[in-house]
Amino acid sequence: MEKQKTKQRILDTALELFSTQGFEATSIAQIADAVGVRKASLYSHFDSKQDILDRLIDSIMEGYSKHSVRSLADSMDDELDPDGVVRLVTEQIRNAIHDAHVSRARKMLTIEQYRNPQLAELMTRRSYTDVLVFAETLMERLVSKGRLKPLDTKLMAAQFALPISVWMSLCDREPEREDEAFDLIERHIRQFFEVYGADE
Predict the structure, then answer these.
(1) Which of 2, 17, 24, 130 has the greatest number of C-beta atoms within 10 Å?
(2) Strand, coil or helix: what is 6?
(3) Where are the alpha helices (DSSP H) in 82-177?
(4) What pLDDT, in 10s, does the model give residues 166-178?
């Protein structure tokens, strides 16, 4: 049990360091010092720094699959008015911003996307591909239920989701502007319904 706790502390600490310094700039010695274990002890849990990163990626993928934007698709039928969509989107974003593990993982991916092809691919999937899949699924449902005009749902998804991604990134960089970002997100969603809403 103690071994598992130490292993998890190593992973948590490594993620914190990778999310602020980057993977390359963080040494095994720094991780061991921050955890409060000897370097040799750390190697009894992980083979290498890459092994730690690989385990973190597994953990990130598992966390994303539990809270994936794709998993929200099934709960959308009750969220098909502007208030419901505002609630659905803002709850998802608040979780992503305030969950320490999710936030650190996203920051690590942001730093490492230009140095590590595996993390670049994961970053594209998490911050672009899956976001647009969710948004297009939402647009298709809103169109099929007669809430939005039957236009190009792929383009509508991009117009809906990409500004929200920018405001979410703003919250990561400047947390003091969170209220401003969420106000803009809500206004954006409501105006989206005004512009694309189906004629009654």
Answers:
(1) 17
(2) helix
(3) 82-98, 100-112, 117-124, 130-144, 153-173
(4) 999 999 999 999 9
**Coil, strand, or helix at residue 184?**
helix
How many other C-beta atoms lie within 10 A of the C-beta of residue 88? 20
Please give the backbone phi and psi of residue 72, each rounded to the nearest 5 degrees, phi first.
-75, -20
Please report which helix (H) or strand (E) contains residue 124, including its range. Answer: helix 117-124
Tell me the whole-structure pTM to 2 decimals: 0.83
Q: How far apart are CA 74 and CA 153, in angstroms?
A: 18
How far from each other are the two terminal CA atoms of the chain, in whole angstroms?
61
**Alpha-carbon gap, residue 127 to 109, rounded angstroms:** 10
CA distance 105 to 96: 10
**Euclidean distance between CA atoms 162 and 159, whole angstroms:** 6
Closest CA to 73 of 139, 162, 119: 139
For residue 148, give the 3-state DSSP assignment: strand
